[in-house]
């Protein structure tokens, strides 16, 4: 039985000791000690400005975190990923989402084969298809042009496309309707299609494996809906396309593989939105904008690969997450985009971060003796302020926050005082970070004339860490850089924790048990049940209430 090495590293021990001195220091002290802290602890590159000065770190912390990263071979692991080594060891796969956005001039080898031309060939096919649909050249079975696109997928085959569609709605073809169906709850599909004309609707079935229960169930139901409405089995050919790595299953479903857009086993599901899984995104925003988004991803990839750790945005984000999680004991991260278009960004990040780093054993299979991936969640500002921010400001748990905002809005709207509503939005973002960091002391509260009994209630302890990410404007390019920032930050954390950030065995058990349960729920007559008493009773109760 091997033991995890991380906590025995001298660099980890040094951070522990350092925490004993800095852990109690208030951000007020840290800012008072260094008047230029706000400028020094910030990095700007590839269109993103990252202010981490409101994190509870000083120069020593940052130095020690970098030393830890070196001890964990972060630079070498970054190279191994970009080189196409099989770093997803439990699935014996390379991890090359970076190849999905590599320019055609690059060469990336997987088992001696350059995958970059393959990537561009698929991108070109996607672009040609999107041009056909968007121009009206691609006709439905009854000769009508396609006005509705319904993307069916789940997890990585859904969350990225939904998030990107919402994020880039301002760049989308407004006269087309885009819907996304993921839940095996029939309501999802029924509500998504109820007002659509099947003759004008294209379904994209997105599934890397093309065996996922939810997606295949919904795809079959969608096919029935389409064929019933159009009265002809042959309609499937003009109304269904597939995105998958599994041509055999696509053909078995009944989609002609000439209408299939492929990708590869070296693309993880949650890292696939810039592969053909992004077909709905490309249909919405067009091939040019899609390529701009890929260029944004690539800009961050290059930054991550080439920039020294002290100015490396994903490395800094990842190391700060390790500091907050392992040394300040924060179990969670709130992602707070002050941008309505990013309303699905926290949901997207939940899979990216938690499916990647929700692991309890090291690459060698040793049980970790330290915390790994934190819980990510969030809502767009300012909605969260009127909901859960109370706990972040005055609760007993430490919730580090990522604030995300843009200097320019895509929808200027004059405010009644003469300014723009966007300034109001961004004033809130900036004020929240300030309030969390510095709080309000009891003396300050008293000085405002607050009755003594209310002083404790109105006191803000402060010292709540946050990072602020600022960009000029939400463009496809900026979205790409932002997503890649988080992708690589997740990787950095996984390297430090010595875990496989690219497998997801944890989703298997529930899937497996559901297979037995479905047979028991649908059995004729009383099924013989061999579960625990709670599960047995739930099954009986469900059947009773359903059939009553
Ligand atoms: O839930 C596990 C998972 O495998 C995810 O990692 C993946 O994104 C999702 O299911 C969908 O898988 P597929 O694209 O194969 O349908």
UniProtKB/TrEMBL annotation:
Gene3D superfamilies per record: 1.10.1390.10, Glucose-6-phosphate isomerase like protein, domain 1
Top-level enzyme category: isomerase
SUPFAM superfamilies: SIS domain
Active-site residues, as the UniProt record annotates them: 355 (proton donor), 386, 511
Chief site of localization: cytoplasm
Compartment(s): Cytoplasm
Pathway(s) annotated for this protein in UniProt: Carbohydrate biosynthesis; gluconeogenesis; Carbohydrate degradation; glycolysis; D-glyceraldehyde 3-phosphate and glycerone phosphate from D-glucose: step 2/4
Pfam short name (any one): PGI
InterPro entries: G6P_Isomerase (IPR001672), G6P_Isomerase_C (IPR023096), Phosphoglucose_isomerase_CS (IPR018189), SIS_dom_sf (IPR046348), SIS_PGI_1 (IPR035476), SIS_PGI_2 (IPR035482)
Enzyme Commission (EC) number: 5.3.1.9
Keywords: Cytoplasm, Gluconeogenesis, Glycolysis, Isomerase
Role of this protein: Catalyzes the reversible isomerization of glucose-6-phosphate to fructose-6-phosphate.
Protein family: Belongs to the GPI family.
HAMAP family referenced in this protein's UniProt entry, alphabetically: G6P_isomerase
Full protein name: Glucose-6-phosphate isomerase
Native source species: Rhodanobacter umsongensis
């Amino acid at each position: 039985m091997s033991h995890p090495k991380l906590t025995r590293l001298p660099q980890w021990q040094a951070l522990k000791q350092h925490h004993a001195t800095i852990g109690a220091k208030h951000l007020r002290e840290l800012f008072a000690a260094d008047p230029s802290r706000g400028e020094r602890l910030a990095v700007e590159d590839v269109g993103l400005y990252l202010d981490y000065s409101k994190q509870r770190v000083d120069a020593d912390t940052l130095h020690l975190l970098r030393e830890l990263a070196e001890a964990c071979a972060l630079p070498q692991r970054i190279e191994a990923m970009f080189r196409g080594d099989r770093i997803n060891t439990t699935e014996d796969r390379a991890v090359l989402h970076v190849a999905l956005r590599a320019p055609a001039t690059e060469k990336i080898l997987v088992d001696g084969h350059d995958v970059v031309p393959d990537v561009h060939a698929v991108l070109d096919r996607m672009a040609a298809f999107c041009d056909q649909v968007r121009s009206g050249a691609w006709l439905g079975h009854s000769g009508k042009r396609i006005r509705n696109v319904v993307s069916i997928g789940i997890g990585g085959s859904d969350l990225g496309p939904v998030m990107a569609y919402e994020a880039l709605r301002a760049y989308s073809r407004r006269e087309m309707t885009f819907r996304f169906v993921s839940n095996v709850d029939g309501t999802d599909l029924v509500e998504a299609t109820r007002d659509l004309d099947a003759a004008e609707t294209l379904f994209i079935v997105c599934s890397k494996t093309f065996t996922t229960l939810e997606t295949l169930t919904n795809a079959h139901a969608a096919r029935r809906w389409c064929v019933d409405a159009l009265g002809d089995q042959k309609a499937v050919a003009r109304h269904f396309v597939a995105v998958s790595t599994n041509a055999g299953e696509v053909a078995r479903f009944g989609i002609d593989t000439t209408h299939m857009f492929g990708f590869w086993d070296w693309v993880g599901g949650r890292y696939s939105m810039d592969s053909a899984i992004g077909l709905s995104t490309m249909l919405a925003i067009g091939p040019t904008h899609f390529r701009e988004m890929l260029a944004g991803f690539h800009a961050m990839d290059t930054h991550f690969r080439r920039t020294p750790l002290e100015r490396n945005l994903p490395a800094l984000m990842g190391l700060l997450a390790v500091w907050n999680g392992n040394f300040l004991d924060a179990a969670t991260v709130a992602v707070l985009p002050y941008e309505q278009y990013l309303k699905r960004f926290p949901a997207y990040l939940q899979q990216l971060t938690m499916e990647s780093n929700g692991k309890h054993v090291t690459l060698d299979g040793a049980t970790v003796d330290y915390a790994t991936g934190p819980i990510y969640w969030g809502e767009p500002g300012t909605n969260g302020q009127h909901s859960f921010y109370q706990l972040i400001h005055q609760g007993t748990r430490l919730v580090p926050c990522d604030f995300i905002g843009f200097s320019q809005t895509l929808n200027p709207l004059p405010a009644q005082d003469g300014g723009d509503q966007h300034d109001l939005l961004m004033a809130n973002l900036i004020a929240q970070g300030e309030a969390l960091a510095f709080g309000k002391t009891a003396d300050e509260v008293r000085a405002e004339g607050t009755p003594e009994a209310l002083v404790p209630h109105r006191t803000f302890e402060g010292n709540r860490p946050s990072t602020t990410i600022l960009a000029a404007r939400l463009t496809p390019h900026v979205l790409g850089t932002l997503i890649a920032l988080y992708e690589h930050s997740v990787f950095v954390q996984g390297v430090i924790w010595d875990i496989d950030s690219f497998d997801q065995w944890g989703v298997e058990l529930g899937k497996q048990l559901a297979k037995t349960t479905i047979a028991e729920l649908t059995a004729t007559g009383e099924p013989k049940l061999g579960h625990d008493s709670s599960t047995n009773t739930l099954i009986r109760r469900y059947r009773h209430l359903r059939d009553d």
